[in-house]
Structures are given as structure tokens and as C-alpha cells.
């Protein structure tokens, strides 16, 4: 056993460029859910396997010491799963957490290691009021510890066991919190795949929190599928059981919401049976009923029926669920602790007006109105090289290692980092994205309506060719979006919304750091003395630079640096890719290899032909003539209309 524990785990191989992998390998139901198996021999076999894995997960020492010098004192045992055990952990300040503890001896191959790291990577990236907060991860010689927010009031499963059935007003409130969290997950292309009452916990204030991301996965695109059969038998969607023949997507979480709603209102899951195979057959036929002795409202039945549609496409989307008539019933202002044991009094007497107010407030707190759509999370395979032979966790996965990553810096004469004022040093104004989009859209719209009138001199800007994105690589499934400008500056817009720009023929590089409350801050650094946290990012920039210079062609000739320009955001559609730059320019690369850039707040337009011929003119003149004068552009007017609509969508989406 000791030899097994000390054996170093090999790092994962580097992934191919733009390749996405199914890095989550869920535990098979037969290993995790022995209570659903009918035959005694299968129960005993599963129990032996579980006992063996539990034996590998040794009780942590009374004091767990981490590499960064932070110590945690082990507290009470909280529970046990297939591969992990949970304990309370207390830090030096007295703050208590839950620590999911995984034995290193159970991580015997790359598949198991990838599964664990995928769970950590996905959970670490999530920040939502109704998702269990990921605090940190660390390890000692024996175990890996995932430190989580503690939810002391147990789960919806314990509540249902105590209550037998839950009232409709309470379930309405629960469903809003769950829908808010799932909407956030889906906006990041994360499928949970193991939503169930036992994985939804109450925090100290009785807010619901979704936890356990061991089966979660990231979809490369919104319409792609996963094919692994996984989940808890009572909650598995029918398309999951189809395996490779059908595939599954976000709709499996919608199905699970229906199962949970039914279970809370009726008292047990709709397809429950002693034999797991009977459960699966019932699911495939959607064979369930509403018992007469446990009446629920017709509007609740209708929502459940739609959520449990056999065809995933017939289920309501996550945005449609809360528009159902059922949510117009009595709605409480919050969940109280008494709900853990009994129904609160007076729920049926909440007025329609007060219910409407409470419903809106609950949706607001659950983030229904403001979901944050982010790039999907993926395991950074090249980051999994451990610095120590016995180490398994890459340092990049620990939030506490990067919490001081971007700190305040003062101007320095020795080449060390200094804060850059965009307006003065680089003559670049960084406006809010919606302001830039709105101003540009309004000008395009105004020019469109006045193209038959006399031209105002103010609508004829100086038309020099703008700085453009000459080459790009979308590697957002790993690191971010890399681009090379026509002045040969190379940048990477990382998945955390920050950017590093390496200036051509310079010993400086710039970090454009995004703060949600403060906007963007630019910090100038020396390549000779980069900050520790930037060294890895510089390696990524160099990697992209080498790739682009070896494999991609420029869209135009080299130019001198007129200004420092960053990419702030990009949008990809089947017809074009849209780049939004810090200088207010919008570049559109169409699929027919023609590029068009809108600059000067919508007053100037630039065309770059497939053979790199570049021309810039006042937009009003191109609108009047219907095309560019020196070299025609296929479907020029249509392309301008597409550009206007794309900028309009951005302007009003951000407002």
C-alpha cells in the first residue's frame, strides 16, 4: 500500500489545438447506487467495492498542513460517497468548511485523475448564489482535499424524509433557486448531469445550493452532445439511457428539475422501483402517474408533464420554466428553518400582489435577470505537470495561489510593473462596451437614413487604414483567444476576461486587467523582469505566436504602431466573426474571406479583400454608391446590413 501511495502520477499529454475532450468519466451507477439493485449478490459485491474505496480514504490528520502555510484542523465526519469522505475543516480564524477528501491511492490511472481534476476545474470556475462555493484545493502525501462552503442544514433529501411531502408554495421558491443556478451553468455550457434532491443543500440562511460536480461536463457548443451513460437511476433522462445512439445535452438537467418537483410534491420520484431495470423501462416509456391520495394542482401537473417530455426538444427551456401558470400561485418571501421539519403556517394566505413581489425578488436573487455567459471550462492539460514527484494538483487550480495575482502597483524607474493611463500615454479611450456599440449603431442608422441627402462635412472623417486583427486562433476551450495585429503586436484574451499584449520590437508587454466594478486597468511590465504570475501567460502568448507565424497568413501588410489596441470581445456565428476593439473599431471577418472594419464611431468603413487589398472610405459614400470604388465587395449592402444588426444586438443586449 505504501508503495502505491508514493508512486508519482504521470501528467496528462498535451492536447491538440482547438480539440475538446470528454474529460469527465462518471462513476457507473452500479458502483454508486447499490440500494437500487435487487439481487443480494450484487448488493454485497457493490458494498465490498465501496468498503475497499473507503478504506483507501484514510481519516485526515488532526491538522492538515498545506504548502502555502495555511493549516486546517479536522472536525466532524460529515458523510461518505463512492470515492470520497467529507469532514469539517476549520482554519486559523475559526471559519468552518466542508472538505471532500479523496485518497490518492484510489487515483490509479489517468482517467480517474482527469475526472477529479475536471470536477475541480469546473467547480472552481463557478460563482453563483445558488451553487456551493468552491474555496480551495490542496493535498498531502495521502489525500487530495477539495475545500467547500459548508451547508449545515442538510439537503432537500433530508427535508423530504422529514416532511414526507412539501407544500406547493415552498416548492415554487425552491424551483426558482434551482432554475437560477442551472441557467447560470447552462450559460457557461456546463451540464450538471447529477441533479437530485441529495445534491441540493441548505446554507446557514436556508438558501439552496447545488453541489457535487463529479459528473458535470462541458459542451463544446450549445448543440453538441455527450454520450456517457451516467447519473442516478431515479433521475436519469431517457436520452441518457440511449447512450451512443441518442446522446444528451442540457435537457437532462431540465428533466431532473421535473423529477425533483414531482418528488417534493408527491413524496417520491415518479419512476421509483426496487429493481433498477424496472426504473429504466418506466423512464423510457415515461410511465408514471399522479396518485389521487396525494393531490397537487393542475398547473403543477402540467409543468411536470412538460418537464418530463420523452422528447428533449419538447421540454421547456430553462428560460421558459418560470413563465408557467404554476408560479403565479402563493409565493413565500424566503425559506425558513422550520421548513426542515414542518410546513410553515400561513403560506396559503399570501396575497397575489405580495406573491408577485416575492416571486420577482426571488428571481432577482437567483440571477434570473442577469446570467453571466462565459467561455466554457476545460481542463488545461498542459498545466497538469506537477512540480513535486508526489504532487497531483497543478497550482493553477488553487484560488488561494492567485488571489493576490493583480495587486496595486506604483510607477517604477527600474523597469518593474507600472500602471498605465490609457488616455494620456496611448491616446486610447476605453468606454463601456454598450456605450461604444450604441454610439456606433446610432451613427450607422443615421447615415443610412441620410444617404440620399447632402453630405455633411462632419460625416467625412479622415480615412486612414485602421489597426486590424491579421491572424487569430480560437483556443478558448483551453486558454483563450489569441490574435496578431497588423502592427505585429500579439495578444491573448484569456478566459478570465484579462488580456496580455506583447508589443512588437519592444521589451515591454501590457496586461489589460478587467475588474467587474472598476472596468479595465492597463499595467505595463518588462519582459526582462515579468511578474511571476505572468510568466506562464507569456509562454502561452509565445506558443500562439509560433503557431500563427507558421500556419496562418496575414490579412494585410505590416504597419507601424499608431496606437495600442486590445481585443475586448469577439462573437462567432456561422456567417462571420466579429471583433470589438478597445479603440472602438468593429472588425467583421466573413466566411467568404472578405473583411470589413467599422471605425470612427461608425463614420468610416474599411474593406480587406482576400488578396489583401485594403481601402478605407467614409461610410456615407459607400452607402450612397452601394459598393467600394476601387474593388467591388460581394453583397456589399447586405454585409453592411448584417454589421449594423450585429452591433445593434450588442448595444441593446448590454444596455
Automatic annotation (TrEMBL):
The chain positions of domain POLO box read 468-550
**Can you tell me which residues bind ATP?**
104
Question: Keywords on this record?
Answer: ATP-binding, Kinase, Nucleotide-binding, Repeat, Serine/threonine-protein kinase, Transferase
SUPFAM superfamilies listed in its UniProt record = Polo-box domain (SSF82615), Protein kinase-like (PK-like) (SSF56112)
The chain's coiled-coil residues are: none
Disordered: annotated span:
1-29, 42-69
Catalyzed reactions = L-threonyl-[protein] + ATP = O-phospho-L-threonyl-[protein] + ADP + H(+)
- Domain Protein kinase intervals: 72-327
Q: Which domain of life is it from?
A: Eukaryota
Polar residues bias located where? Answer: 1-25
- E.C. number, please? 2.7.11.21
Family per UniProt?
Answer: Belongs to the protein kinase superfamily. Ser/Thr protein kinase family. CDC5/Polo subfamily.
Provide the protein name. Serine/threonine-protein kinase
Amino acid at each position: 500500500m505504501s508503495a502505491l501511495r508514493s508512486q508519482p502520477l504521470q501528467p496528462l499529454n498535451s492536447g491538440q489545438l482547438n480539440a475538446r475532450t470528454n474529460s469527465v468519466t462518471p462513476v457507473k451507477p452500479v458502483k454508486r447506487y447499490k440500494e437500487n439493485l435487487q439481487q443480494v449478490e450484487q448488493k454485497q459485491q457493490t458494498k465490498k467495492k465501496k468498503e475497499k474505496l473507503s478504506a483507501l480514504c484514510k481519516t485526515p490528520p488532526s491538522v492538515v498542513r498545506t504548502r502555502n502555510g495555511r493549516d486546517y484542523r479536522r472536525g466532524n465526519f460529515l458523510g461518505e460517497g463512492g470515492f470520497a469522505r467529507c469532514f469539517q475543516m476549520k482554519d486559523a480564524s475559526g471559519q468552518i468548511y466542508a472538505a471532500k477528501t479523496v485518497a490518492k491511492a484510489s487515483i490509479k490511472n489517468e482517467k480517474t485523475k482527469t475526472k477529479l481534476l475536471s470536477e475541480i476545474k469546473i467547480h472552481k470556475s463557478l460563482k453563483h448564489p445558488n451553487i456551493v462555493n468552491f474555496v480551495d484545493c490542496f493535498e498531502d502525501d495521502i489525500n487530495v482535499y477539495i475545500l467547500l462552503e459548508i451547508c449545515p442544514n442538510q439537503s432537500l433529501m433530508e427535508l423530504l424524509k422529514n416532511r414526507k411531502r412539501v407544500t406547493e408554495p415552498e416548492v415554487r421558491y425552491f424551483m426558482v433557486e434551482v432554475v437560477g443556478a442551472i441557467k447560470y451553468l447552462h450559460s457557461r455550457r456546463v451540464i450538471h448531469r447529477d441533479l437530485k434532491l441529495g445534491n441540493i443543500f441548505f446554507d446557514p440562511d436556508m438558501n439552496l445550493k447545488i453541489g457535487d460536480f463529479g459528473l458535470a461536463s462541458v459542451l463544446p457548443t450549445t448543440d453538441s452532445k455527450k454520450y456517457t451513460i451516467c447519473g442516478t437511476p431515479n433521475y436519469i433522462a431517457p436520452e441518457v439511457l440511449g447512450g451512443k445512439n441518442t446522446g444528451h445535452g442540457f435537457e437532462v438537467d431540465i428533466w431532473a428539475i421535473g423529477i425533483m418537483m414531482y418528488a417534493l410534491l408527491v413524496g417520491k420520484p415518479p419512476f421509483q422501483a426496487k429493481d433498477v431495470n424496472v426504473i429504466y423501462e418506466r423512464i423510457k416509456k415515461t410511465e408514471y402517474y399522479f396518485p389521487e391520495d396525494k393531490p397537487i394542482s393542475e398547473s403543477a401537473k402540467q409543468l411536470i408533464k412538460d418537464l418530463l417530455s420523452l422528447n428533449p426538444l419538447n421540454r421547456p427551456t430553462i428560460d421558459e420554466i418560470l413563465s408557467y401558470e404554476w408560479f403565479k400561485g402563493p409565493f413565500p418571501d424566503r425559506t425558513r428553518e422550520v421548513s426542515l421539519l414542518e410546513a410553515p403556517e400561513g403560506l396559503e394566505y399570501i396575497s397575489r400582489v405580495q406573491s408577485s413581489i416575492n416571486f420577482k425578488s426571488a428571481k432577482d436573487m437567483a440571477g434570473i435577470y442577469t446570467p453571466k455567459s462565459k467561455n466554457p471550462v476545460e481542463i488545461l492539460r498542459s498545466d497538469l505537470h506537477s512540480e513535486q514527484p508526489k504532487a497531483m494538483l497543478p497550482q493553477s487550480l488553487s484560488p488561494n495561489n492567485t488571489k493576490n495575482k493583480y495587486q496595486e502597483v506604483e510607477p517604477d524607474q527600474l523597469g518593474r510593473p507600472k500602471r498605465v493611463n490609457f488616455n494620456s500615454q496611448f491616446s486610447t479611450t476605453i468606454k463601456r462596451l454598450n456605450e461604444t456599440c450604441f454610439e456606433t449603431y446610432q451613427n450607422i442608422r443615421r447615415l443610412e437614413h441620410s444617404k440620399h441627402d447632402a453630405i455633411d462635412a462632419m460625416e467625412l472623417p479622415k480615412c486612414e487604414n485602421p489597426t486590424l486583427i491579421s491572424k487569430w486562433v480560437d483556443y478558448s476551450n483551453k486558454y483563450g483567444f489569441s490574435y496578431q495585429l497588423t502592427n505585429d503586436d500579439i495578444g491573448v484574451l484569456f478566459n478570465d476576461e484579462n488580456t496580455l499584449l506583447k508589443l512588437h520590437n519592444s521589451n515591454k508587454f501590457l496586461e489589460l486587467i478587467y475588474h467587474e466594478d472598476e472596468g479595465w486597468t492597463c499595467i505595463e511590465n518588462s519582459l526582462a523582469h515579468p511578474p511571476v504570475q505572468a510568466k506562464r501567460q507569456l509562454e502561452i502568448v509565445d506558443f500562439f505566436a509560433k503557431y500563427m507565424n507558421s500556419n496562418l497568413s496575414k490579412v494585410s501588410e505590416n504597419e507601424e504602431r499608431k496606437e495600442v489596441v486590445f481585443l475586448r470581445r469577439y462573437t462567432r456565428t456561422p456567417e462571420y466573426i466579429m471583433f470589438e476593439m478597445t479603440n472602438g473599431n468593429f472588425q467583421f471577418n466573413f466566411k467568404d474571406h472578405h473583411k470589413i472594419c467599422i471605425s470612427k464611431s461608425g463614420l468610416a468603413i474599411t474593406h480587406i479583400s482576400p488578396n489583401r487589398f485594403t481601402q478605407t472610405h467614409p461610410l456615407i459614400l459607400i452607402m450612397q454608391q452601394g459598393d467600394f470604388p476601387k474593388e467591388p465587395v460581394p453583397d456589399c449592402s447586405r454585409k453592411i446590413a448584417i454589421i449594423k444588426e450585429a452591433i445593434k444586438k450588442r448595444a441593446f443586449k448590454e444596455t
